Amino acid sequence: MSDDRLIVAMDVPNVLDGLELAKTLGDSVSFYKIGLGMLTGGGLALANELKQEHGKRIFLDMKFFDIGATVEAAVRGVAQFDLDFLTVHGDPHVVRAAREGAAGSDMKILAVTILTSLDRTDLDASCIKAGTVADLVQERAGIALSNGADGVIASPQEAALIRALPEAEGKLIVTPGVRPAGAALGDQKRVMTPALAIANGADHVVVGRPIWQAENPKAAAQSILAELSQ
Question: d(Cα 158, Cα 184) in Å, to the nearest integer?
Answer without folding.
Answer: 21
